[in-house]
Amino acid sequence: MVNFTVTQLREHMGNRNNIRNMSVIAHVDHGKSTLTDSLIEKAGIIGQQQAGDARTLDTRKDEQQRGITIKSTGISLYYEFQVPGSEKRDGYLINVIDSPGHVDFSSEVSAAIRVTDGAIVVVDSVEGVCVQTETVLRQALAERVVPVLMMNKIDRVILELKLDPEEAYQRFLRTIEDINVLIAMYDDGKLGDIEANPVTGTVVFGSGLHQFGFTLRRFAEFYSAKFQTPEADLVKKLWGDWFFNPATKKWQETDTDADGKKLKRGFVQFILDPLYQVFDAVMTKNTERLNIVMTQMKIHLTKEQETFTERKLLKAVMQNWMPAADALLETVILNLPSPVQSQKYRVENLYTGPMDDAAAIAIRDCNPDGPLMLYISKMVPADKTHFYAFGRVFSGTVRTGMKVRIQGANFVHGKKGDLFIKNIQHCVLFMGRKFEPVEDVPCGNTVCLAGIDQYLTKSGTITDFDDAYNIASMKFSVSPVVRVAVEPKEMSDLPLLVEGLKRLAKSDQLCVVSTSGSGEHIIAGAGELHLEICLKDLQDDFMGGTKIKVSDPVVQYCETIQEKSSTISLAKSPNNHNRVFMEAEPLDDELVEEIERGNYGPNSDAKEMGKDLVTKYNWDPADSRRIWCFGPDEKGANVIVDKTKAVQYLDEVKGYFEQTFSWATMNGPQCNETMRGVRFNVLDVLLHPDSIHRGASEMVQPIRSCLYASELYAQPTLLEPMFAADITAPRDAVGGVYTCLNKRRGQVVCEEPRMGTPLVNVKAFLPVSESFGFTADLRSHTSGQAFPQCVFDHWQLVQGTAYEVGSRCYSTVRAIRKRKGLPEDVPKPDSFTKNCKMIVVFFCDIFVELLVEEKICNHQMII
User: Fold this and answer.
1) Closest CA to 404 of 387, 418, 389, 424
2) Contacts of range 65-71, beta carbons closer than 8 Å, 24 or more positions apart
3) Residue-level pLDDT at 851
4) Residue among 465, 475, 476 nearest 354 (CA)
5) Fold (CATH) for 1-211+323-337
6) For residue 584, what are the β-bridge partners?
7) Residue 845 has what pLDDT?
8) Which of 49, 200, 579, 802 is 20 to 30 Å from the Cα of 593, by its Cα?
9) pLDDT tens-place string over residues 96-127
10) Residue 843 has what pLDDT?
11) Which residue ranges make up each domain of the chain?
12) Backbone angles phi, psi at 46, to 5 degrees
């Protein structure tokens, strides 16, 4: 029976100090959903026997069938908890979000982390810290979300690996150290001391499958009376190099007594040994010994539970002895921050406006009476046609019927684009498989809103403050680099497909839906599995089972250059009255990555950015101050720089340059792919004095031609996306892993044995274009023993250039052009512009550089 009502939840939403917003994050198959069942069982929503098997927050049918989480799912739970040292039990509201572990669904992890203040990082005790563990922990720390560690599946250490207690301790210690290395690497210092430490209670040991868990405090409380030692002092002795000497009945830091006899460390003797005894008694059906242990540990079973088989009996015994939910609640309530605490240091990361305006102050104070500031992190399907907008109230109170400003991700303060003023139809609570209506929700809580899905595509800011800036958009750890084209089997179903694609784009943060120049409907995803799920949702959920045709997966490439343009490009306007001179040069790789991370861009401080460009990347000081824009879409890793001298009327046509640059960098000349890492220098512009002769119809064409020709004069080539593949396999299957990678142009980076296991970790780079069917191929080469995780890592130059016959770049460009219905040959730069040959004359020690085009046509010199 449920231990609370929605009315109780609403009553406690106002007690901001007793709210905890937390997400459960981990590598795939490390046990997040089974562990979350323990909290749901504690709240009375499911029965004790169901917990661990129900996976309640796997709400989709395909999640239950596949055994993996695909979408992050939230639920609000109420508990009563007595803080150690307190005399009464207080009510606590815990908003839990279970997130996926598969790398293809990392955007769901980002959506979960944005609206929470703490995270339980779940780690499989056997597999240890894996590649996705690092990814999700890095995401959490970037958002200033406090992590605590759950050492899960310790039953596997005992039953499968059969490690002795000291070896088990050493394994746990290594895993905790690995987590702390990552925390030290990615923490910005604003969170204080957040290292995982069993002594401070930030590490839980247990098993989600068997629904048990414990902290050191749980055992210190049990042994405190026996040793007549304060609980706080005893906790410190139960971890690390502390050994109990039974002869002297004292603790010591050396592992031998006066006679040289080996002593057991406190964690082994007082925690693992009793645990091993219970496991052994249950699994060997030693009833007499089990009864003795149960009496000592005060474990009580029902008569029905006593008849269970070994595994079910083990779960029943451990659940009764040390329920996982008790340990998790203790850790979450004592070690994760409330909204009041967290928003003080998170506001700098969250709010994009000035830190002293009304909205920022209200967020910092978590003020329920301040301006409404609510961030929508994802859309949750309410039915076949509508979505609930799921997010977090950071300040103010959201109410049903309230008039709000809906500011989309592209909203710019002071402008009206991507802004709607509408009323909220309903406020509801996300309760796993169902939604519960509420009248209003104050700050510090998560909420779902009905009636705004037609105005927001994926995420955005909801506010009632007219001068509010947006809450910052989320950053994702993966990119949508795999694409397919879709079309209906019956053309009469085309409107249904178009509508279905709009809903699909709303339902998934990382799914990008677009229409190509040839009219194809393109769906881009992070990987094969992500695309598979998107296509299934499109066909089954958003198109009512209507059949569609899907092309073979294709990969998004980027166009780039390898050197400075060999020739300056000149293009004339159609009326021959205006001329544009440009050249292109490659940007530094490190600078490109900084731009893509958002560290440099149109919103950066111009002085700071200019200083960095000069000192770090050797730019000319004048050039660093004259960047016109970034592109495409004002945020891409391409720039256009003004290097002209005293050109008349230039400001009047600057807008044409920016618009054309944004369009051209989105559709490059080699094969209509996006450009990356190209800097275009505008060297000179000759403009007609009469404005009617230098309008958009006259300027766009020469600017576009110059941009294209400048790229093609600069050793044009492609960048292909590369996956970082993390492959786990037994030692005797590593040969099959290498064979499979070699067939697919994979580059092995390193091979590391996993300490204490027969497993080996192979890390490699794999071209995304070669990744289709990789998982199935790898399993066939290793008899199903290898498990890969692939995540987008970097862009890599394709060998050769677009004009080098026989090179990989040449063949790839031609294949892409053929697929897009373009002529297979890449156009020559001459087809866009006239050659500007440079003549260098040295006379009387004076260097004169003349630009000559046919005849020396009234052109001012560029010196």
Assistant:
1) 424
2) 67/29, 68/28, 68/29, 68/100, 68/101, 68/102, 69/32, 69/33, 69/98, 69/99, 69/100, 69/101, 69/102, 69/105, 70/100, 70/102, 70/105, 70/108, 70/533, 71/100, 71/105, 71/108
3) 34
4) 465
5) Rossmann fold (3.40.50)
6) 680
7) 31
8) 802
9) 999 998 888 888 999 999 999 999 999 999 88
10) 26
11) 1-211+323-337, 216-321, 352-463, 482-555, 560-715, 718-800
12) -125, 165
- The tokens describing 180, both together, are 């702390």
Q: How far is CA 576 from CA 371, 556, 681, 838, 844, in A?
A: 56, 37, 22, 21, 36
Q: Find all residues with CB under 8 Å of 470, minimum gap 6, and list them.
A: 352, 407, 409, 411, 413, 460, 461
656-687 per-position pLDDT tens digit: 999 999 999 999 999 999 999 999 999 999 99
User: Closest by alpha carbon to 449, among 492, 416, 408, 402?
Assistant: 402
Distances (CA, A) of 56 to 2, 50, 53, 189, 733: 14, 9, 8, 36, 36
Q: What is the mean pLDDT of the chain?
A: 87
Domain 718-800 bears CATH identifier 3.40.630.10: no
Task: Return the closest-CA partner of residue 237 out of 258, 215, 221, 253.
Answer: 253
What's the topology of domain 560-715?
Answer: Ribosomal Protein S5; domain 2 (3.30.230)
What is the arithmetic mean of pLDDT over 33-40? 90
Residue 453: alpha-carbon gap to chain centroid: 23
E strand or H helix at 495, and its extent? Answer: helix 494-507
In tens, the pLDDT along 708-750 reads 999 999 999 999 999 888 888 888 888 999 999 999 999 999 8
Burial state string for 143-171 with b = 16 or more CB within 10 A and e = fewer than 16 = bbbbbbbbbbbbbbbbeeeebebeebbeb
CA angle at 809 for the pair 804 and 812, rounded to the nearest 5°: 125
CATH superfamily of 216-321: Yeast translation eEF2 (G' domain) (3.90.1430.10)
CB 666 within 8 A of CB 681: no
pLDDT of 782-808, one tens digit each? 888 888 888 888 899 999 999 999 999
Residues 254 and 240: their CA atoms lie apart, in Å, by 11
Task: Write the pLDDT tens digit of every residue in 173-188.
Answer: 999 999 999 999 988 8
Number of other CB atoms surrounding residue 329 within 10 Å: 21
- pLDDT above 90 covers a percentage of the chain that reads 50
Phi-psi region of 529 (alpha: psi -120 to 50; beta: other; left: phi over 0): alpha
State the pLDDT at residue 2.
67
Report the C-alpha gap between 44 and 79 in whole angstroms: 10
The two structure tokens encoding residue 86: 């307190």
Domain 352-463 matches domain 718-800 at the CATH topology level:
no
User: Could you tell me which residues are beta bridge partners of residue 404?
Assistant: 422
128's torsion region: left (phi>0), alpha (psi -120 to 50) or beta? left
Coil vs helix vs strand at 62: helix
DSSP string for 695-723: SHHHHHHHHHHHHHHHHHTS-EEEEEEEE
The predicted structure's pLDDT at residue 834: 53
* H or E, element range at 113: helix 106-114
Compute φ and ψ for 748, nearest 5 degrees. Answer: -70, 130
Q: How many whole angstroms separate alpha carbon 564 and alpha carbon 208? A: 58
- Pick 291 or 438 by higher pLDDT: 438
pLDDT of residue 756: 66
CA–CA separation, 599 and 592 (whole Å):
10
Strands, E, within 756-825: which ranges? 759-767, 787-797
Q: Into which CATH architecture does domain 352-463 fall?
A: Beta Barrel (2.40)
